[in-house]
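Please check both lines for our workbook:

___
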Amino acid sequence: MGQDIRSAHFAARDFARFERALREETQHAHDLFERGGFSAREPMVGLELEAWLVDREGRPAPRNEEFLARLQSSDVVTELGRFQFELNVPPQPLAGTGLSRLAQGFQATWSACCRTAAEMGLRALAIGILPTLRDDDLCLANISNRARYRALNEQVLRSRAGRPIRLDIEGTDGARLRSEHRDVMLEAGTTSLQAHLQTPPQWAARAYNASIIASAATVALAANAPMLFGHRLAHDTRIALFEQALDIGTREGSYRGIVPRVTFGTGYAGYSLAECFRENLDLFPVMLPIVSSEPSVRLAHLRLHNGTIWRWNRALIGFDGDGTPHLRVEHRPMSAGPTIADMMANLAFYYGLVGWLVQCDEPPELRLPFHAARANLYAAARFGLAAEVHWLDGDRVRIGELVTESLLDHAAAGLDRFGVDAAWAKRTLQLIADRAEMGQTGAVWQRRWLSRHGPDMTALTDAYASRQVDGAPVHQWDTAS
């Protein structure tokens, strides 16, 4: 999805050519799985952060082209909305001081973004949903100036046969938000922190399943999107907004019923991650038939098609520097923000918990049914750390208690097994411990601020931005004006 294209319009022959190439590459990927053709290097980690540009009033500032031209960084690129950008950090080995170096790269690139925004009289802001965002901000006038985004909009509307996209989100206190759009721009209402974990092939499927199981805890801990268009809704409203923003499904007559393109998935991986790519081919129509001239071994069509199916945990195929294909899991449920320290703690918790789950003697996916893992995610998005979930022993427990009583120890053990620097891991996971103990995520802080000061979204955004600049982790934030 990162590549740009020359035209936003496609003919029937484009779809036919793309389908043929996609089938050939899906078979090639299957062969790679069968003969062990993927990289066996030790785990690597990386991240993507989607963030906002806001003006002095805290309103979205649709100026990302000027921002990127000033910044001149290949690690920072456009996002769907003209008031957003995406920051990438070069991957690092997970073992040793890799996560520490990832944090340093993250901070350096984020600081450069903040300086460039300030030169323009703006602020860069990392938050799941901007509190000052209005419904009419999400219009085609604010779509980024790239043909691929216009193509995405055209193909989403084509797949819906012109039917409008209807938003209907119920909050935890009875509030309800309804809206109707005739373009894809609702997707631009959300921003996330995405974790990448490159895995050796022998435990790639286990890592994918572990990411699914970990999702409820990571969503609850990273919840930072309680507001949308001035309505107080779920702790992480981003989950429902993104799913409804791209409300398009599988091929008609699918043997699994209607499967949305933004989805928790249809089940755990079994034999290998090849199942994910086969499901992509079988269930999901081609959306962006951009025919590539690259040889089939580069899997250009398979990778592009995979990029138009937004599982909350997504299997990826990439390439090492020497051209060897590798497997990654992209963990997508976490909100952006509040601070670099908080986000690095979220990443460390995720990597550690996955490391522990992968190495359990009995695969945890055999102990937690997929439907329970899915229900856990949506409960966590609605209620945050107060959500009750099913865990591996079948009991129901509040996520906050689960984190403090067992998951933190599991995450620490997982990081230790990966060989992560012990001092860094202990110091960073302590932020998760303090956040869970205090019960204050970004979403909880926003709710507490509003309860104290009233529904002034501009003042809320200013207070949030000031604390983000100070850099203290969110569990230490007060609600003074």
